[in-house]
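Give me the 3D structure for J domain-containing protein.
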Amino acid sequence: MKALLFGLFVLINTTIQCVGFTDTNIKSVCQHANINNDVACEQNKLSQFSLHEYQKITKWLENNSQDTDYSQLLEEIYYYYGLNLLLDNNNLDLDVIAQWEKIKHSKTLIDRVQPKLDDLYLKFGYISKIKGNDFIEETRNYKDMDLDERLEVSPYSESLLHEKIDDLWRDIMDYTSNSNIQTSSDDFLIIFANDLTTCYKNLISKHGKKYSLEERSEYFSILSDIEFLMLNNFKQSQLFAKQCIELDDSNKHCLDMIKLNGKLLSLKSRSNFDPLVIDRNVNLKWKNEFTKMINDQKGMNTFTKISDRVSDFYKNNKKSKFKKIYNYMPYQELLTIYKSIAEDLSTKNFNNQANNKKIKALLSSIRVKEIKSIKDLKTVLTSEHLQYIWHEKSPYICLNVIAYLINNEQFINDKFAIKIGDIYNLLNNEKVINIGNDKLDDFSYKIIQGVKKTFEERQMKERILREKQQQQQQEQFFKQFQGGGYEQFFQGGNFGGHRGQRHQAPPPEHSQFSKEKDYYKILNISPKASEKEVRKSFLNLIKKYHPDKLSNLSDDEKVKMEETVHNINEAYEVLYDEQKRRDYDRFRSI
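Predicted structure for J domain-containing protein (590 residues):
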């Protein structure tokens, strides 16, 4: 950029030295055009006019161009006017082209502007207008290039930008309808969204002057929606919405976006916790600030009404670009979740047992297809479901489901398909089982500690039961021994086939491991894989085989899929735990 500015500066000064007119002509024009600029008018420095003065002097000269004394001066003004527009840095390139294309007769000026003019033609896709040999050679294969290649060469071409936008929306619709987009880290979605943003920005900045206020306002509205719904950038979404309102203050959707983003940004700044990561963190301290924001009925109603209006706009507005893809967007659930939290926090019973109606709503929002009612929780909900909910949706939702389970007497009595050990292992693997109350809200801490207490109680009961069984076995042995059954007991195979043979100590007990299963192969990792690699491979496999994909399979295929998921979870549970992994490695070496 510095080199470009320096080049233009040299070009301006060189031109001043090479081309000039009598002071009388310039002074006369200044007087007629009502321009009071002593430096430009008195000292014959045509480069020193302001853009507004160039407009005035150009208009007067064009009206009097029949006077041959002024014809060459007019082309000189076109030249300087274009140079100043180029230096203005306000995306006035099309205006530069318009001014320089008016230069028809002065060969000196034409030679000076043509290289820069050809460069602008290339950037805007006006290939047929290019005259310089170097640029012609560069565009020789232009027609054979694909869309992206042409856009690299001509990033400001209006027709190419519209074509790219249409292609991107088609790609997004195809991708979202054929993929299970669940997180904000979806690389393809981010690429599509950023490409769309670039295209719309270039249309507004380079071609905006030809569009109506309503059209430009609509472009800013779309940019606001992309940032909110696809990228979840509240601040940028709000800025675009404000630019939308500046052009069209009757746009109600942009007004809603300003308010909604403002509330979320307020929450984020007060709590120093990003609401975006509710699907990545169990630290829900921000909920306390959320409570303050909506602690009165009016505040809650305002927030939920705005959320409802924005959701309805995306789902029902025929003009909305998001109408066909809204239900596939990862953050369409954000509005549902926030509204749900708002409704919860407005009641006195939020920290009590979650009720059936609430759980049904949560399960509905996460679209776990196999679970259609609360009754299905007993027979269908598995540890794989909980892991899916935790990682791909929100720990907040997952903890609400867990709250329902551990407060249900039937669950405590093992009437559910999922066991307390499964839940404990999930929380332990996510490293939240020992997090203190200083880092968690009361609800989350209470639920996690409830799981821990129930699991430890169950472990204690099982240990007592095992000890009791061992005691009974010992008592049976002594009864046999005292009853003369010594020979029979040893010859029965318990300690080997020979009388009096010393029993060889058994290898360490690893009954939970199987020689038939290679956990490293199951997770597709090497035995030297790091903890991070184990987790990454596990998450990728869980996404690949997540429960939503069971719906279109046959019964046999479902059984195989469920067995595969079970093996993946079993391998992860062992290899992600340092002690279990050491035990497993020793077991493999035996």
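The radius of gyration is 37 Å. Let me know if you want a second pass.
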